[in-house]
Amino acid sequence: MNSIKPYIIGIDIGGTKLATVVADTEGTILRKLRWPTDSQRGPDAIVDSLIEMAHLTLSEVGVNMADVAGVGVSCGGPLDTETGVVYSPPNLPGWDAYPLKDKLGSALEIPVIIENDANAGGLAEWMFGAGQRCRYMLYMTMGTGIGGGIVIDGQIYHGANDSAGEVGHQILIPEGPLCGCGQRGCLEALCSGPSIARRARELIAHDPDTLILELAGGRLESVRTEFVVQAAHEGDALALKLLDQTAYYMGWGIANLVNILNVEVIVLGTVAVAAGSLLLEPMNRYMRRFAMSRPAEVAQIVPAQLGELVGDLAAVALVIADQIERTRSGTNSTLSQ
Amino acid sequence: MNSIKPYIIGIDIGGTKLATVVADTEGTILRKLRWPTDSQRGPDAIVDSLIEMAHLTLSEVGVNMADVAGVGVSCGGPLDTETGVVYSPPNLPGWDAYPLKDKLGSALEIPVIIENDANAGGLAEWMFGAGQRCRYMLYMTMGTGIGGGIVIDGQIYHGANDSAGEVGHQILIPEGPLCGCGQRGCLEALCSGPSIARRARELIAHDPDTLILELAGGRLESVRTEFVVQAAHEGDALALKLLDQTAYYMGWGIANLVNILNVEVIVLGTVAVAAGSLLLEPMNRYMRRFAMSRPAEVAQIVPAQLGELVGDLAAVALVIADQIERTRSGTNSTLSQ
Known about the structure:
By secondary structure, chain A is α/β, with parallel strands linked by helices. The first copy, chain A, has 13 helices and twelve strands. In chain A, the strands form three sheets. A five-stranded mixed sheet of chain A has the order 3-2-1-4-7, with helices on both faces. Chain A is globular, with a radius of gyration of 21 Å. The interface between A and B is large, with 39 and 39 residues.
């Protein structure tokens, strides 16, 4: 990639929406386009849309493809970052060993970097958000699932086959609740948004005197994690108990991760951002209780800072990090020929 | 360090024995000296012994200090690899913030690298043993404790303050048996040598009809893990049950590590080496049952290969890895001036 080229295209492929952005190499987003994914159309049709969107976004800011350094793509995994092949992400039916990088690369004729969304999101939080200036960072989404991204010295840690950082599938209780992955008692099966809601419904079934149920219109099946968080902010006892349980499991799981990875900053998304210190304060406490003192000394769990922007910045950050790495390793000149 | 200098001194500081070796830069050990630690003497006296031993070992092979590239020191942690300060290892009373690197360096007048024994042992298994030619390796001792060392691309992963790889203190059961670290239900409290013996005694107290008890001379308090392994090799049902429990906990814990680190080879020491496939076969099976399929695909738990040599080779490997890294990063010429 040529570091002289001043623009970057970012592509965020979600299960319900597609986004393309044009940014400069500082990460400033100049333009954004958002279309529904309509995931039933299959990968080829979605890639056609993405190509159209990329050209449209560029033309809206008056930039030529010749001035674009590269395309960063944030997408559900599993995927192979080297070959650029995507393997059946749960949110994208029909993407079975789909050569995303090749398809986009040959259509757009510029270098493409693909990355799973949790890794790319972690990189964005490191570059622009809560993990700035730290050498050892762990990012954990805390939304529909608990994805993870390990960022060391500004680079994503991929592991042997791009499967590292699956921290949400750390099994805490082998006889615990069923997880989407097929196992039982994963951190994700205890603390993802839907899992917190499930635990809330279980508790409310026995103890319906709670603001959570009121916020759900009195319907147990309508209980969502947002209502738990909202009720906790208003001091509801059951909601606070649910957040404390969540903090316990997360603190325990993160303590294990702190002992293994010795990271300085653990950046948590979605639910942690919404709940704030109600969740993060006890979570940090449990983490310190369960972790060894030396790694715990330097570790801090903090809320993510990028909010809704994370997907766009994730895609853009991939290209910027690649440029930094190429400069550092001295391979820039070769590739920009 | 000057890569032209053909010899390396390795120092292994254990709670009961001290060892110095002289090796060439291929890792061939030319001479070894072993003295008791007598740990009550305190660090200064031990360092005096080590300096004497180093000179003695060198003179026995007729090598001058001027031909030694550096000293690698494998020592109980926690310690700071940069400053070379050792912080109260459990097996070395009185070593409280002791500046080991400075003391050795100023006495021997050559560069010193210090490293905790589990990390250094992992590096040795990567360089000379079961982890050769793999990019992502995890080493786990399985002796008195369960130490861990993460080796990526031939370099030890240290984390933010040299505390990474404490995989033995992954908490599996917060209400489980007490661990030496003060927590409950750590992997170490379930599967270290002494922990297996403790579980054996608990089971035998209720079910004394086992070869294990016979091997222990009929005395419950004399039951040791060696007897469990020996009885298992002879088909004893209780011993096999104990190994299966051990394999279950280890397989569960390693599955979590595989999901997080996506390593290819997990090298296990001591007990795993003694028990062999009786332990490793079910452990690999449990690991695959609990890990996600993609990281599990490339992961394999194998026995360590260096046996008693690990401590000596650990110390030597530190200097060799440092030389490789300096050559790779181009800092060799600067430092060898």
